[in-house]
Amino acid sequence: MGKAFTRRDFIKISGLGLGALSLGAGFYNKSSVPQIKQIAQQAGASISGNTPTPTVCEICFWQCAGWVHTKNGEPWKITGNETDPNCNGRLCPRGTGGTGAYLDEDRLRTPLIRKVVDGKQTFVEADWDEAFTFIADKMHKIAKEHGPECIALFSHGSGGGFFKHVLRAFGSNNITAPSYAQCRGPREEAYLLTFGEGVGSPERTDLRDAKCIVLIGSHLGENMHNTQVQEFADAVGQGATVITVDPRYSTAASKSKYWLPIRPGTDIALLLSWIHVIIEEKLYDEEYVEKYTHGFEELKNEVKQYTPEWAYPITTIKPHVIRETAREMARHRPSTIIHPGRHVTWYGDDTQRSRAGAILNALLGSWGRRGGFYYANKASVPKYHYEKYPKPKKTWRDAFPDVYPLANLALANGICDATIPTAKRDCSFKGWLVYGTNLIHTLPEQKKTLEAIQNLDLLVAVDLMPSEITGYADVVLPECSYLERYDDLRELPGRVPTIALRAPAFEPKYNSKPGWWIARELAVKLGLEKYFPWKTIEEYLETRLNGVGLTLEEMRKKGVHEFEDRHPLYFEEGMEPQFDTPSGKIELWSNLLANYGFDPIPRYTAHEQPPEGYYRLIYGRAPTHTFARTTNNPILTELKSENEVWVNKNVARLHGLNNGQYVVLTNQDGERSTKIKVKVTERIRHDCVYMVHGFGHTDKRLRKGYLRGADDTKLISRVKVDPIMGGTGMRVNFVTFEPAV
Amino acid sequence: MQELTITSGRHMHHIDPHLTIWGWEIPVYLFLGGLVAGILFFSAVYFLRGKSDEMRTTVRVAPLFVPFLLATGLFALFLDLEYKIHLFRFYTVIRLQSPMSWGSWTLGIIFPLSTLWALMHAESVFPNWRYPYKWMEQAMNFVKKYAKILAWLLIYYAAILGIYTGILLSAFNARPIWNTAILGPLFLVSGFSTALAFNMILSKTKEERHKLGKIDLMAIGTELFLIIHMFMGFLASTEIHVEAAQLFLGGPYTAPFWIFVVGVGLLIPALIEVLDGMHKVKSTLVPAFLVLFGGLMLRFIIVDAGQFSSWIF
Amino acid sequence: MARYGMVIDTKRCVGCADCVVACKTENNVPDGYCRDWIVEDVRGNYPELHMEIRSERCNHCENAPCVRCCPTGASYTDEDYGVVLVDHDLCTGCKACIASCPYDARYVHPEGYVDKCTFCMHRVREGLQPACVEVCPTKCMHFGDLDDPHSEVSKLIRSRPNHALIPEAGTKPKIYYLL
Ligand SMILES: Nc1nc2c(c(=O)[nH]1)N[C@H]1C(S)=C(S)[C@@H](COP(=O)(O)OP(=O)(O)OC[C@H]3O[C@@H](n4cnc5c(=O)[nH]c(N)nc54)[C@H](O)[C@@H]3O)O[C@H]1N2
Ligand SMILES: Nc1nc2c(c(=O)[nH]1)N[C@H]1C(S)=C(S)[C@@H](COP(=O)(O)OP(=O)(O)OC[C@H]3O[C@@H](n4cnc5c(=O)[nH]c(N)nc54)[C@H](O)[C@@H]3O)O[C@H]1N2
Ligand code: SF4
Ligand code: SF4
Ligand code: SF4
Ligand code: SF4
Ligand code: SF4
Ligand SMILES: [Mo]
Q: Could you say which of A539, A723, B286, B295 is the most buried, measured as most Cβ atoms within 10 Å of its Cβ?
């Protein structure tokens, strides 16, 4: 077959119908998808009645458990499951608006295959069988010519597990997600290096009981990770001191005793200076440091130089404020937490910045202590027993040898790089399966992503919406929304370990299908049926649940199950301190980093500042949206339909910008944004501008999000890569304003 | 500095960013209401003063238009209702605290009264006027017998109607621009003024026109006086009212209000009428038309500005 | 007659608008309308700033101009709870009540009648909290009888500084914002 197209055009229009729909319907009946009505009868509940159905929210990755309520069979509302410690019966605005994911009229309706019709590339509607045949043929061909390892899976979201299973069974372990190198990778590695364990998700931060919370960029309240925000509010309500370091007066800053409007990119200097004060003034937890840490003397010597006076011109934070806040932190220790953040891929020295925070936490003795970091209990349900996977000859590591030695997960951008052939690499990636991630909006350096895509023989996108990535796919597979499907169990660690069930509240709309079914049928088509001994998802879930003495029927009734078996959360309650680091202690001075030739103690390096007339582009979240996945949601776009660019009042005056006017942003590389409204505000520094990520869709099929606001990714045309683990620092782009035409 | 941002939700049709719930219908209705009030008032007054012949147009001809003007006004009001089939709900209760209720009941009374009044005068205006049924004639004879009482009732209700057209708005505390006691008298006088202009246009005799013009001059003077006092009142009131007044004193309504309402609608016609009185210019109907135009503009601008002004922003 | 009202803790509220979404789904509020909304009230100059975030809705005013000006009695104050409601069956859509509300809390429902926050009386009558109160992730909203000195809302009003919106308008609003 070879490459079908010399260039993979972005297909903007919806597909041509070639009568495939009726075929699809016939196929549907023959398939192994059990009709939901039958399932419901089995479980003794009625889905058309008003008995709520248990669900696990899929609008973000916090995975709150809830109930789907219907009125006369129509979707009505989703509420939180009261017994779920991950939401305490209260969903966040996005989860509450989750029915919009089901109701969205722009959803993908049927499988689409890229074909040339009248000399033009277009999507042709296909039935499922046709789509699977197409994909399986291409996958086999790639495997034959290059090896199965040349197929990679990008997966973000709960249905992804079944696709990972398919790919591993096929012989590739190249599985990646943007949640590592574009999100929390540096944090996980930093905490692993320091404490021998990552922070994990949901974060094991004991905000609820904290007396002092230090937020470095973390914009809780806009970042709506549910129980984080709930606990943050509890702490604020109980009078905890909040110290927020953010160039922008965030919601969290407005709850803070101290707002430190730091010069972007200089947080390490502030952290080092805080460490300096805490050590110089002997404010640290001596007993804890003595007992549990490694390399204190080295740290002490190293940070001697980092006086608040040194940090002041770098950070613009006044020395007395640095001292005062350091003392405030110490006053409340060990119930002081330097929040580890979540999206931390900012400047390419992010592992080191996260480590500076981890070190500060260690000095304050907050790891393993109430009001600091608790020891999470893990929920464990035996995995379904499968046949052993074939052993891949190459792993993702081979895609980028010699670099990022401390990366523990595949880099999404790395896979992307390794898809573009170079003289040095013998084989590049030839096939991508993309499940639930909109790589076009998600990966920085958009041009590179697009170039990589041009080198593929196969791109399959499994998505709910006609997101930008689907426009580049050879095959688009419409998954039904989370409200129309079962998924694997949600197994979450936490103070209380739990599992939760997602069951379908509605039948899949159109010709969409649950992920587990798509994965299974694809496996069957690939000749991998033996890896799917179960026929229906109920069978699969029943088996897993029986492993812990539960049944599907019981779970359908309660939605969430708590495990009794738990260990204490804190050292003071008897948790045994154990640090899985080379020294067996909390490493203030990191052996591993030293081994690999990195700074064993974080150091401040200056970052490039914006040239005259340009402003650093920083970005964040709106509480009512999740990335680009809700910016077409009919309920949530009602609340916020576009993003704004926040511009300091004086900057606005300088550029003659008025509040509410539209502008185009252009960056240092000449990349231009779509038009975006200006928000003139006192709430941001003069050297940066801010926008919420996720807006500015460019796919016309997303009718509510199309050209609404601007996409920050377009403007993140360069990154600074973290040499330690490969995270892509994305806040290194500078923009200026152009009038919108 | 204060930044007030609505971060979610509010972009409701006709509510945000400021009210636009009332379009042309309400100003037209208020204009016609005022006009009718004025016509009936002067008709009844001159009737009682026995000037039915001298002031024939005012007393006898103009009222013939009233049922049609009222019907048009009510139709405009009807068009404005969002739940039209519930129109009858206005007449299932009397709500003493609601100007809107007062208004609907006043109209409910004034409509038949004014129709009788018009019929009564129709006989003298149209010599060939005949009733199709005998009982009608008998009924009209009965009305004629009590014509004086009817006239008094009309004076009374016309005043209520005229004031009501202003009170309807001024009762809305929530809209600073409307929230002034002067709006009632202002709309009453303006209504009278438009009625006088209307009569001038219809009138066939110079004497009557002259007389009407003289009264109108007084009405215009009163209006100017009220307008000045209205703004003095605002400026002496709360910050919200001061801010609201700014809409007319530099804000977006400044030009339309001072040019169309005060200039074209009051000062110019007044000037022409004065010059006319001094026989400096040829007597024309121009001032009368300008007064009608000004009266209409007054209602449009006040209805609009009121919706623009609020306590919030 | 009880006097139901709300107390909202602006210290805890993060302006997430969950209360808005919950209201929309619970009450099937049509597209383009809302019964509650979020205001960010920022004062000061960089970097000395203060922000109050408020979840706003009909204040169920004790001295409700919308009730007074309604010509048909469609807008009324509920006898049992002291809550301001609209009887859709009596409403003519004359919009006098909309003009009279200083908070712009009302709107014309596409079906023709005027609509607004009901304090979720359909829930409250069944002993449930209003949808917005129940969903709020920060638990910053409290609902109850202001006449009952032992109610949570009364206690909060007594124990913490608070303010209501536009008291100058004389409507006696029944939603209090804790500072
Ligand atoms: N410029 C910029 N880039 C960023 C970030 C940023 O802030 N700015 N943030 C980074 C971070 S922290 C992260 S975690 C990543 C997130 O990156 P992504 O997870 O890629 O985020 P989304 O853009 O929401 O893409 C999700 C995709 O999943 C689809 N989807 C939604 N529900 C379902 C479902 O049930 N089934 C299937 N199959 N698909 C579904 C959506 O339609 C959408 O196409 O982005 C990173 N990239
Ligand atoms: N509503 C909502 N909530 C979400 C998500 C969502 O899509 N929507 N996504 C979830 C996911 S996957 C993630 S990873 C998290 C991300 O959420 P966080 O981890 O909180 O993300 P940050 O990147 O820290 O947040 C951006 C903040 O950093 C500030 N900032 C920018 N540059 C700098 C700097 O140089 N120094 C400092 N100190 N601050 C800076 C910005 O002004 C902004 O307030 O949010 C999660 N929660
Ligand atoms: S935090 Fe919100 S969006 Fe994320 S899973 Fe929970 S309810 Fe859903
Ligand atoms: S849900 Fe609660 S925290 Fe969120 S905006 Fe509403 S009142 Fe504030
Ligand atoms: S807030 Fe407005 S609608 Fe609600 S009771 Fe008060 S005046 Fe009436
Ligand atoms: S619109 Fe309805 S509720 Fe409002 S005042 Fe008119 S009749 Fe009353
Ligand atoms: S009380 Fe009910 S109707 Fe009122 S805003 Fe809250 S959810 Fe909406
Ligand atoms: Mo993330």
A: B295
Cβ-defined contact of C47 to A96 (cutoff 8 Å):
no
- Cα A518 to Cα A60, A476, A588, C153: the distances in Å are 22, 12, 47, 52
Nearest CA in chain C to B12: C33
Residues A588 and A674 in one domain: no
Q: Lowest-pLDDT range, A321-325, A595-599, B270-274?
A: B270-274
| Residues of chain A neighbouring B9 (CB-CB closer than 8 A) | 638-639
Instruction: Return the closest-CA partner of residue B260 out of B216, B295, B224.
Output: B295
Q: Does residue C175 sit at the B interface (CB-CB below 8 Å)?
A: no
- Identify the closest residue of chain A to C19 by CA–CA distance: A93
Strand partners, C177: C8, C163
Distance, in Å, from the CA atom of B268 to the CA atom of B217, rounded to the nearest integer, reads 11
The verdict on the CB of residue C65 being under 6 Å from ligand 5 is yes
pLDDT tens digits along C114-124: 999 999 999 99
Residue A207 has pLDDT above 60, yes or no: yes
> Alpha-carbon distance A160 to C52, whole Å?
41
Contact B9 A683 (CB under 8 A): no
A240/A324 same-domain check: yes
Residue A357 amino acid letter: G
**CATH number, domain containing residue B145:** 1.20.1630.10
Please give the pLDDT value at position B313.
55
Please, are residues A221 and C16 in contact by the beta-carbon 8 Å criterion?
yes
Beta carbons of A550 and A484 less than 8 angstroms apart: no
**Mean of pLDDT values over B269-277:** 89
| Residue A431 β-bridge partners | A151, A458
Buried b (16+ CB within 10 A) or exposed e, C20-51: bbbbbbbbebeeebbbbbbbbebeeebeebeb
H or E, element range at A42: helix A36-43
**Per-residue pLDDT band at A6 (split at 50, 70, 90):** low
**What is the residue range of A685's domain?**
615-739
| Contact residues on chain B for A649, CB-CB shorter than 8 A | 1
Are A194 and A304 in the same domain?
yes
Does C44 contact chain B (CB < 8 Å)? yes
Report whether the peptide linkage leading into residue C173 is cis, meaning its omega lies within 30 degrees of zero. no
Q: Which two tokens stand for residue A596?
A: 């690999």
- The SS3 assignment for A547 reads coil
| Model confidence pLDDT, tens digit, residues A438-458 | 999 999 999 999 999 999 999
Please, which pLDDT band fits residue A63 given cuts at 50, 70 and 90? very high
> What domains sit in chain C, N to C, each tagged with a CATH number?
4-178 (3.30.70.20)
Structural domain count, chain A: 2
Report whether C49 contacts B24 (CB < 8 A).
Answer: no
B1 touches chain A (CB under 8 A): yes
Whose structure tokens read 């948790």? A575
Element (DSSP H or E) covering residue A314: helix A308-315
Q: How high is the ipTM of this complex?
A: 0.93
- Position of tokens 């949600």? A490
Amino acid (1-letter code) at residue A639: L
The pLDDT value recorded for residue A110 is 97
Instruction: Compute the distance from residue A517 Cα to the ligand 6 centre, in Å.
Output: 54
pTM of the model: 0.93
DSSP A44-72: T--SSSS--EEEE--SSTT--EEEEEEET
A201 C-alpha vs ligand 3 centroid, how far in Å?
Answer: 13
Distances (CA, A) of B28 to B77, B109, C88: 9, 20, 27
The enclosing domain of A694 has a CATH number of 2.40.40.20
Residue nearest to atom 2 of ligand 1 (CA): A713
Contacts of A634 in chain C (CB under 8 A): 31
Total Cβ atoms within 10 A of residue C2: 16
Contacts of B165 in chain C (CB under 8 A): none
